[in-house]
Amino acid sequence: MLSKKKIMYALSEMGNLFPDAHGELNARNPFELLIAVILSAQTTDVTVNKVTPMLFAAYPTPSALAKADMEDVIEKIKAIGLYRNKAKNIITASQILVDEFNGKVPSSHSELIKLPGVGRKTANVVLGDAFGIPGIAVDTHVERIAKRLKIVKKDAKVLEVEQTLMKNIPKNLWVQAHHTMIFFGRYHCTAKKPKCVKCPLLKMCEFKQKGSPIA
Asked: Would the pTM of this model clear 0.85, i.e. be above it?
């Protein structure tokens, strides 16, 4: 597995390719970000950004969404995958925000993961992008990159990927590192057709050495 020095080198090279890496879900406040991230599970950010304007126009606050008719919410988000379950989750999450958190999105990991549709990844995204609280959200892109570059073993679990990255990357860089790795995985080192010919990290890549995807 890579040393801390090599991990930071790899991250630096990714940053050179994508110096403006950032969260691509459109949100004006922590509530909108929370809902958008819940909706983004197994769905592209582009698709989520197409449905959230109509959703937030109708339900701009937790109290409004908490009282929403589920069929109306489904109608507004049906372009995304798993829309029925997600509609239930965002309505229930909004009800919990109103009943337990005075209509505000909590800024602690332990409280966020109690909300339906919110796991470690979602909580870390909300904490980092809405509140500036350091965390590394391991999505499919981050996991793929970590395994291809041998930062972790090929059979490493998501939590192990997260812990390894946090151990080797300075805490003040966690949020940006997460975005950088996502951009690198989303636009360069893609699952099926990575841009190996133009990759500055090709020599340390497991994908290239084995000749088959690890994703």
From this structure: yes
